[in-house]
Amino acid sequence: MTSPYKQLLAVVAAGTVLAGTATAATATAASSLRYQCSTSTKGIDDAGYSGPWPDTWDVTVQVCAARSGSTVHAYADVRWDGPAFYGTAAEILDGAKIRVQIMQSKTGTVPVVVERDFPLKARMERTASKGDHDGHFRTLTISHRAAGSAYGDGVLFLDWHKDGRGYRAHDYAGSPTV
């Protein structure tokens, strides 16, 4: 006869194996999704600097979305090419973030189903040895159940140091509808 303790251990072990299988299956399903993406680029002026050097940042955002049943997944891939004149220790931004949203496609107003902000300030101020401010960041994937068609959207928020205006939004092209 098996003791209750051994029975409990067998149940816990079986649950662990099943949980591990579900996690592996979920990870495999997420990696096999077919993402549809849109990419757009904007030249953004540093509103906190008015000196003689060029101060435009070229920022490219690729927004991608995929559907698995009724669940929509979205992420953004952000690349920037900033000026090198700032130097290696300059404070350029008071804040920077990329907002990834899943939008429900409907006629009239387009409601946001879910959104998440990802901080970028430290990454954008990081420099190469020559003071160049180039970089790249891919957000985590956000997911949400969305009835009907939906798409991913990306908004870059920048708050330039010493401009006194706070965050300003820069909209980028959303993904194709999934």
Secondary structure tally: strands:
9
Q: List low-pLDDT spans.
A: 4-28
Which structural class do you get from the secondary structure elements?
alpha+beta
In angstroms, what is the radius of gyration?
A: 22 Å
Tertiary shape: elongated
Proportion of residues in extended strands: over 45%
In short:
Helix content is 19%, strand content 46%.
Would you mind describing this structure in some detail?
- This protein is an alpha+beta fold and 178 residues long.
- It is 19% helix and 46% strand.
- The chain has two helices and nine strands.
- The protein has helices at residues 4-31, 121-125; strands at residues 36-45, 56-68, 71-82, 93-104, 112-119, 133-138, 142-145, 150-160, 168-172.
- The strands form two sheets. Strands 1, 2, 3, 6 and 7 form a five-stranded antiparallel sheet that branches.
- A hairpin with a 7-residue loop joins strand 4 and strand 5 (112-119).
- The chain is elongated and about 50 Å long.
